[in-house]
Amino acid sequence: MLLLLVLVLCSSLFLIYQILNRQKHLDQNSTANIPPGSRGLPLIGETIQFIRAVNSNKGFYDFVRNRHIRYGNCFKTRIFGETHVFLSSTESAKAILNNESGKFTKKYIKSIGELVGDRSLLCASPHHHKLIRGRLANLFSTSSVSGFIRQFDESIIKTLGEWENEGTVIVLDQALEITFRAMCKMLMSLESEDEVVEMLKEDVASICKAMLAFPIKLPWTRFYKGLKARRRIINTLGKIMSERRCSQTEREDFLQYLLTEDDKACSDGNPSLMTDAEIQDNILTMIIAGQDTTASAITWMVKYLGENQKVLSLLRDEQLQIAEKNLNKSFLSLGDLNEMPYASKVVKESLRMASIVPWLPRSVLQDSEIEGFKIKTGWNIDIDARSIHLDPMIYKDPNKFNPSRFDDEAKPYSFLAFGVGPRTCLGINMARAMMLVFLHRLVTTFKWEVMDSDSSVEKWALFARLKSGCPVYVRRIDG
């Protein structure tokens, strides 16, 4: 009897050994040629480490930077229950962002997708994205940008006129206010005095704070508060749209254009060009993109210029020439902006160094091979724009603020501030115009001194915001 038990036990142990050995070989085969990296803890992966970086003064990109140093140009991790592969070479950027093979589609992490909406350009499927993009393209035409420039310039002149008596100004706060007002006016003809503008501003701020939060829908969490803010914004947009449809007065703004085109389609017996939900999600997306990214970029630009007086001197010489030529003109035009070659390089260099959008996310639709590694269907693949922007093999002295580096054409896929390919930022010309107009009015009106050189970034911010807000002491040039 004892002998029988020993034989059974030995057989069982041998069977277990075979199973474990087979599993070991399966694991080895399944992980062959996949990118290096850590899976982290079961289920949650490295989400805790990611959230820790989000909540630090270095910002969430520090999570990526540390792994880039450890593993190289290609590594994998697991956050929010999904596998992410980060790539930081121009060759990878070309293969993925051009997407000629149709193997990739844009996809943000769960928290961002739920907050901006699945009908947003940021999250739409390839086919849906193409349709929506086509319907929104006219909103960013040359004539639209030209009209917006005058409108934005008027707002900047008014705001800077109030700086003279301020002494010290927090640039980020001012830039957020300016860009938010500009987006509300352009999109929906909402003026600063409208009560709804202040409500929208607070709710948009709540959404931005929630974008990198852990997606738990509990009342005290940032994510839950962000979702509530989104619902309030969608309700507000719905009311504005209903009022427009009942009103006999037509406005000259983005929303009116979308509603008018939709009415024309319906009267011709065609289906709606865009549903109300699509309009609402994309209005919200444009507000966030137009305000948050542009305001952050303006803030970094002011900091870089304040700390690089030689660059500022060259820029001011260019802008004073334009100001002298326009003595009899009240506002800037698109033609004026096209005569700002050095300012355009300042904008480009600021965006390169700050990398406001640090990586460009995609989802893998088909098994692929990138840089010799197997990339599986369903994984997320992220182009690490910041690593490319700061690569010394691409940019000499990458941490030096040097707009003249763009005297020569940049290497293809080495400048990714607005993306590349079919998903290039639709508002690229609008954002560029806002930054150039602000630059012109600032450098021809004020001298300034940066009061805090700290480059720490704000916690929880999806787009790289200066924690200090960039306080500057300003005084008029003629003062």
Describe this structure in words.
The protein is an alpha+beta fold and 479 residues long. The chain has a single domain, classed as Cytochrome P450 (Cytochrome p450, Orthogonal Bundle). It is 54% helix and 10% strand. The chain has helices at residues 2-30, 47-54, 61-71, 90-98, 110-116, 126-136, 142-161, 171-188, 195-210, 222-246, 254-267, 276-306, 309-325, 334-337, 341-354, 385-389, 428-445; strands at 74-79, 82-87, 104-106, 168-170, 359-364, 368-370, 373-375, 380-384, 446-450, 471-476. The strands form three sheets. The chain has a five-stranded mixed β-sheet with strand order 1-2-8-5-3, with helices on both faces. Strands 4-10-9 form a three-stranded antiparallel β-sheet. A two-stranded antiparallel sheet has the order 6-7. A hairpin with a 2-residue loop joins strand 6 and strand 7 (373-375). The radius of gyration is 26 Å and the shape is globular. 40% of the residues are buried. Mean pLDDT is 87; it is low at 1-20 and 22-29.
